[in-house]
Amino acid sequence: MRPRCEPAAAGWLLELFCSSAEHESVIGDLVEQYQLGRGRFWYWRQVLAIVFFGLYRKAARRSPVPSSRISPPRVFALILVVASLSAVLASDISGLGGLLGTLAIFAIGLMVGLGWPLSERGFSSIGTSATRPISRHWN
Amino acid sequence: MAAQPTLSNFELMVMLAIIRIGDDAYGVSISNEIEETTGGEVLLGSVYDALTRLEEKGLITSALGEATPERGGRAKRHFRTTARGIRLVRDTQKSLVKLWKGLPQLEGEEA
After folding, report:
1. What is the pTM of this model?
2. What residue segments make up the domains of chain B, in order of their start?
3. Does residue A131 belong to the interface with chain B, where contact is any CB pair within 8 Å?
């Protein structure tokens, strides 16, 4: 049986945001699952989540601001901007509607990134439960 | 003395999944193990994120395996817990059991 081709644009996104050592095994895991019958939607969702968590971690590590103050909405907005730009660059969409849609996503991403209209509290549950320590001060 | 690292809820699940799986613990198998035991969907991204943090804390180590054709010629990254990691999981378990004891609100199926 011929192996299915995984979405190329998703692989390109991973290459862009993951280190080469990390990228190799991560893509391998995704390809393995894709060949076992997972769909394109599943593949894209996993890639966007990997990029989201990767960017969030990098932002928290590099920023002089304490990691608790880096809001997931800002990282989410950045992902939106990157995803809409990559859609244009990879020509995955065509026609005026597609272009307008991409521009709209781009604009929303920028607005959320600048802190409007969502408050930090509204999005505070995204990605934060995984980093909340449960074993602090136990000794 | 070095400060004791901390474990989040999800990091603890990942540590337990690695211990349960043994030698074949890698991204997909860890994610599947957590999905099967908890019944919820787990994003691979959150698993990789937790694995990176655990490795930085010195609680797990990783090594690249051999490339296989079903993975498009890409290698698996295998994970193992360190002695420090096992110790921290054991301490966490002890603390949780202590906290659990004598709580009438949490007894029975209805709790």
Report:
1. 0.68
2. 9-100
3. yes
